[in-house]
Every structure is written in C-alpha cells, then in structure tokens.
Specification:
The structure holds three protein chains of three kinds.
Chain A: H1 2-22, E1 24-31, E2 37-41, E3 47-51, E4 56-63, E5 68-75, E6 78-85, E7 96-102, E8 107-112, E9 117-120, E10 126-130, E11 135-141, E12 144-149, E13 154-168, E14 173-187, E15 192-195, E16 203-208, E17 213-217, E18 223-229, E19 234-236, E20 254-259, E21 264-270, E22 275-279
Parallel strand pairs in A: 2-6, 2-8, 3-7, 3-9, 8-10, 9-11, 10-12, 11-13, 12-13, 13-14, 14-15, 14-16, 15-17, 16-21, 17-22, 18-21, 19-22
Antiparallel strand pairs in A: 1-4, 4-7, 5-6, 18-20
Chain B: H1 3-11, H2 14-22, H3 26-48, H4 51-67, H5 78-96, H6 132-140, H7 144-155, H8 160-167, H9 171-198
Helix pairs in contact in B: 1-3, 2-3, 3-4, 3-5, 3-7, 4-5, 6-9, 7-9, 8-9
Chain C: H1 3-13, H2 19-27, H3 29-45, H4 56-68, H5 85-114, H6 120-123, H7 142-154, H8 159-182, H9 187-207
Classes of the chains: A mainly beta, B mainly alpha, C mainly alpha.
Chain lengths: ~280, ~200, ~210
Amino acid sequence: MQRATSYAVVTVLVLAALAAAETTRQEMHFKVGRHASVSIVNQYGAISVKPGPGKVVAITAILYSTKVEIDNSKSRRRVAVFSHLLEGADAESGRVDYEVLVPADASVTLHSTTGPLHVEKLHGDMLVEGSTASVDVRDVSAGHIHVKTLNGPVTVTNVSDGLVEITSVGGDVALNSVNGSLVHVNTSSGKIHYDGDFGDGGDYSLTTHSGDIEAIAPAYASIEVVARSVQGMVEKDFPLQPEHTSFVPRAGSAFAGTMGEAASSVKLLSFSGKIHLKKR
Amino acid sequence: MTDAKKQQGDRLSEAEAIERAKQGDAAAFEALYNLHKRRVYSLCLRMTANTAAAEDLTQEAFLQLFRKIGTFRGESAFSTWLHRMAVNVVLMQLRKKGLPVVPLEENIETEEEAPRKEPGADDPRLAGSIDRMQLQRSIASLPPGYRMIFLLHDVEGYEHNEIAEMVGCSIGNSKSQLHKARMKLREILKTSRAEKATKP
Amino acid sequence: MTCEEFKRVLPELGSRHGMEQEEHLKSCCACSDLVADLNAISKEARFLQGSEDPSPWVWNSIEVALRQEGLIRQPQLEHSRTPTPVLSWRLRWLVPMAATLLIVFGVLIYQRGTGQPQTTQQQSQPAGVVTANLQPADVMGGEDLQLLQTVSERTPSMRATYEADLRSVNAYIRDAEQSAHSDPNDEVAQQYLRNAYEQKAMVYEMALDRSLP
C-alpha cells in the first residue's frame, strides 16, 4: 500500500514537472501615447487588466504549450495581441493566461471564449466579450463599459459616472454600487442582481426574459420606477408615490411609482421571472 | 499560415493576387506583401535610418494599401501605387516629428566650399571602387532632407517633378538638394577610403 | 568655360551635358573626376533599392490587423463541391439582417401605434434582405441552422452552447412578439422586442466573430 502511494506521488510529481516544462513565459512592453487602445484576443485562458505606471503597456503571458503562439501588432496608439492557435490545439494546450498593465486612461478590448476576464481601476472605455467566460469589472469610473457574454456570469462592482451596457444570454449579472448616466442590462435567462443607489440621475434598465430580478436600494434612493413581469410575481419593499404610466399597474405582476425626487429612471422588466425591489 | 497556403500565394500573379485580395483572401494579401515588402521596407529604412521605425512605417503603408485595395482599378501599376503610399506615410511621419523634409538652410560644407587639399595628394576616382555597405552607412549619415531627395531620386528612381510634388518643394530645389547630397556622399566616401588606406 | 561656371550649372544639368560642358570635361581632369564620381554614386545607389528584408513580425502584425478589421475573410469550405452562393450570401448578411429585423419591427410597431400605413416596411429594408417573418420564432430557422453549422465547423465544442442560446433567444423573441402584437401601444412590450432582437444579434455576432478562430 505504501509503495502504491509512493508510486502515485512520484507519478503526479513527474506529470506536474512535465506540464510545467511545457509552459513558457513571454513578456512584451509597448510605449504608447495618451488614450491608447489595447486589444487582447485570447480564445482559451485568463486575461487580467490593471493600471500600470507611465505610458507603457506591459504584458506577461504564460503559454501552456507549444501549440499556441502570440502575435502582436502596434501602430501609433494601438496595441493588439492575439493568441494564435496552431494545429492540434485545444482548450488546454491552446491556453494562454495574460496579465496586462495599461495606462489608466487606455481603452481596452478583450475577447475570449473561456476566460476568466478581469478589469480593474481604469477610466477608459472597455469592451469585454466572452462566450462562457466569467467577467469581473471593478473600481472603474467615467468610462463606457460594454460587456457581452453568452453564458458567462458578469460582475460589475464600484462604478461611478459610467455608461454600462451588459448583454448576456444565460449568464447571471451582478451589479454592486454601480451608478452612471446609463446602466442597461439585458439577459435572456440570466438572473439580474443590483445592489446600489440608482444614483447620478441615470437611466437604469434591467430586463430579462425568464430570469429573476433582485434590486436592492436604500430608502433615500431618488427614482422613478416601473416594474413588470408578464407571467411572474413582482414585489416591492418600498411605498411608492403613484404616478401615471402608459399601463395600468396590475397587482402582483406590475408596479410603478416614484421615490424621493425621482431623479433616476429605473425599469425592471422580466417576462416570466420574479422581480423584487428590496430595501437595503 | 501553412506552408501549402504560402506556396499557393507565391504562385499567384500580381493581378490574380489583387483580385483575390479584394475578396478577402489571406494568401493573396500575403503574396502581395511578399512581392513588395523589400522595396517598401528598404525605402522606409533608408529614410528613417531606424529599424523599428521602418518596420512600423512598412506596416502602416501596407495596411493603408490593403484597406483601399477595393478601389484599385489597375489604371496605374500596383507597385507605383504602393510605393507612393509608402513615401507619403514616411513623409507624414517625418512632418509629424517636425523633421525638415527639405532643408531650409544650406549650411552643409561640401568639397567645393571646403579649403583645397594639399596639392600632389593622390585622389583617385571613386568609380569602380564604391563599397555598397559603406555607401549605405554614408547615406544614413546624411541630413534628413538631403537623404530624402537622394533616396527618392537615385535609389527609388523618381523624377524631380515627382519629388517636388511629393515633398512640397520646387524642381530647382530638388535638383540642388540632390547635387549637394551626392557631393556630401562623395566627400564621406573619399574620407573613409583615405582613412582605411592609412590604417596599418 | 571655367571650372566655377561648370560647377554652377552642374546641379541643373545632371548627367545631360551640353557642348560647352563636354568641351570643358575633355580638358579638365578635376571636373571630369567629379562628374565620374557623382555618376558612380548615383549608379551604385540604384542597387540599394529593395535590398533589405523586414522582420517576420511585420507581416504577422499586418495579418492580425487585417483579420481584426474584417479585411481577411474565411474562404469557402473545400468540401462543398457545388457552389452555394445563396448560403454564403446569407451568412454574410446574418448579423446586419438581425439588426435590420430589429429596426423593421421597431418601425412596424411604431406605425401601428400611430395608425400610419405600413408602406415604409419595404423601404426600410436594404436590397437583398429576407423579409421579416412574423411566424413564431422559437423554432430554428434556416439561418439559425446555418449559424450552427458554421459554429460546428469552427469550434465544435461550442455548438451545444450556441444551440441552447439560440433556442433561448428565439423563445424570447416569440414571447416578445406576442406581447407586442397583443398591444401595439405598449411601450414595455416594444422594449421586450427590441431587447430580444438585440440578444439574437449578439449571438450571431459572437458566433461569426473572426477574431476568435
């Protein structure tokens, strides 16, 4: 028994060593001007983007096999990096993990199938697209955040003064402390969770076909809200001022009204899911 | 790109490659690139005297060309079209950097203005003995304005009226700058040859 | 002619010398050597044309940019012997068609709401686009099957995901259409429909995205 265990341990160590031997590390540095544009296309693997010092784009890539190589191009203010799969590559052998440092005002475009994708502390525009990749965007201000996934879950945290557009077919979307002039979430079956102030006098639209919507707001929120589910239940923890709307609120499946000064417009729409406007 | 696709691309004629490139054929784009890359890159390299800058400019010239390839109708030679584009890309870059495309001041001392050398010195002709590598180095050491005119005329074969239009100077100025560039190169090459001759 | 006069006119003449200059060159070794040297430099310079090769990454960068800009398009598949121009035409128009359907329904619903005649439906469609089909959309249409076929060929592992997502968005479109038809004045129903088509357009866009091979 002891011998079998020893053999197993040795085998695992050898396999790990072999796997490690296959991985290679590449580093790239690009000098850029103001408002640079950085694009990473990576079918398999993680991409993490953070702000770095100076006007430099610094990329560290871990390639998991020789069946993938990295191409890059740079022209004026644009840096593009592309994981190029060679013949025979699959999700494991074609995997590349990227750590990217960019100037904080850079525009960022990320494309991946598996991800995960992570962006933090930038104030430029960003387009993050992942099929099944999970997307995590946090601590961003004053940029246009555009996220698209098929089924990858999306989490956006601590965004101020932004334009946020999230479209996901089946991925769950969670927004925490997200405020801006426009915050639109559109899912087909993914759940939507919002926990924030609905501030900035913005236009908030959380819509889904069959997912549930849970919106948590403080008592001091200043909103004009419309909530409707054609086939599901709707609930609210707040008393609302009644106001005229284009449809007659039906108890249990719709409500409409205002809180405070009604500075922001909030729409919570689900076709067959539940909607709950909660008090924090 | 696989080897098979590359070979296929190489076998394409330029006209076929242009038509296929208009349809988005990757091999056709590569074939066109391979046909013309040396001339474009060499031009950019000599104009900038910097490998990295030359590669960036080469990339930019081809990208501009490929973006417009749908509009190419064949009225002029494709190579001419590409070459003009490359020259324009380089000129724009030099203008952006504030470098003089054509020198305003003619302060470069040439042989005709320099003090005469000691009589009796052996000063054979350059003809038949110009080292090409040395010529390349000499061109790189020319002031940017002189280098530009020399490259466009003597290396790339543009006429003075074409050069004048491209760089925005008069035909007379183009001729004058070319002459001064050649005089300077003659001086550099002779000096270099003399230095080599005196070395043990 | 003196040497000074000769050198003064030399820039203007280049290699073409008149009688006077030729006579001077025959009698003046210095000027003759000068002309010979300048001609040699000019002649040697011509060999420098196209003598350097850029590094391979230049083409790589160009290719990446061309793919990202959509200038490089995937060739027709070799196994399809009989040309299928209709299918390839449809593939190229899938994404803009989905977006156009979005606009068409928006116009349609707006016109129903204002009581205007529906003649603009035809005008708003670009030439060659299949007319919007108002039948229940949760069943896979021809374009959806085409899309899945493309996904199967490019990334077989993603076919099941795309199939499930297409069914989901088709169901969304179906419910949204029914809601909009039952009350054309309902702004919320119109928003459902717009969102449903936005979802479908995104699925098509991601499936056909050439930046992910």
